[in-house]
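Worked Example 4.2. Consider the chain below.
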Amino acid sequence: MDVRSPFFQTIALILSGVLFLNPLVVTAADLAVATGGGATLTQAGNGVPVVNIAKPNGNGLSHNKFSELNVGQQGLILNNATSATQSTQLGGIILGNANLQGQAAGLILNEVTGGNPSQLKGYTEVAGKSAHVIVANPHGIRCDGCGFLNTPRVTFSTGKPVVENGRLDRFSVDGGEIVIEGAGLNASNIDQFDLITRSARLNAELHAQQLNVITGRNEVKASDLRVTAKADDGSDKPALAIDSSALGGMYAGAIRLVGTEAGVGVKLAGDMAASGGDIHIDLASGQLTLARAAASRDLHLEAEKIELTDTAYAGRTASVEAEGEVVNRKSLAAGETVSLDGAQVTNQGVIEAGVNPDNTRNAQGDVSLSGQSVRNSGTVIASRQLTVTGTQTLDNQGGTLSGQ
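Applying the procedure from the previous section yields the following structure tokens:
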């Protein structure tokens, strides 16, 4: 018995309740394709909206344009199926996408040309062949319970996507904000998740595997996320490049945060945890304020000024570098090496190297404190080598320094 025969496919369609609808008459209050965008709208038998994406070019790019792009709690299906029918998690069995003409997309670019931010409150599923999904809206993106299915990589951007020679070359960012709120964002089933925007605000948890957050007025390469900062155009700058409240934690395998805008800082009051790699935060200038953070490998922080307000830990190396002041107010520890380097280095809490993840101690811990002015009123412990260098001032009043 061949269930791929037209007869059994017809029975499956009837049993699943698939609706045969004319895409020209299907409407959704929160989803509208732009004229000439190439995509068409329909829906699954259970009412979940389906976007029959535009036919990809020879490079596998399907460029879809929307005047409005929002996702309700019921979700959204991006139809990349070349078969006659396709089973989906959100909509059951749906019809394949005739727009594709047998060629599935490798990258699904969803560009919003209207004037409203995108509200994403449910899951977006790629039907058929898995593909990189991009949502690009210069007016902003808000996620409240959003997630994605059947895609290895997702990119949110408030930059304009620039396509050259049939390939997505870069995002040109001038403004816009990405907000994670309410029920948060779950990208833990996705290999890579990127936020490319002028500023980001996290008021809810974000879960991912490899997380990249790039902020500022930039040209950002789509392939490898190389960043070229734009010259200051005099426009109003956001108060913070990344603002994470106490409810806005980031939990990922590895985390990379980049801020390129002069004088615009980052405030991370929520927890940060990299369970399989590094936490890397690099600000061109401005202040970095960091609360609780833990990286299974390295913790690297670089900014104009850095303030550590809570407990931070790195399984291997913790490196903190600032042009101005570095302040540790509570606890900074690492399995192997801790280094603090700034014009002024102040420790009011505990700095310790040689601390294992289970809180036992090893004998490979080195600590280095270096600055024009070094002030320690807390405790600094190195299980092996301790180096403290103050080229102008070295003040250990009320503090403890311990090393081999």
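Residues 1-29 have pLDDT under 50 and may be disordered. Helices lie at 6-16. Compare this with Example 4.1 before moving on.
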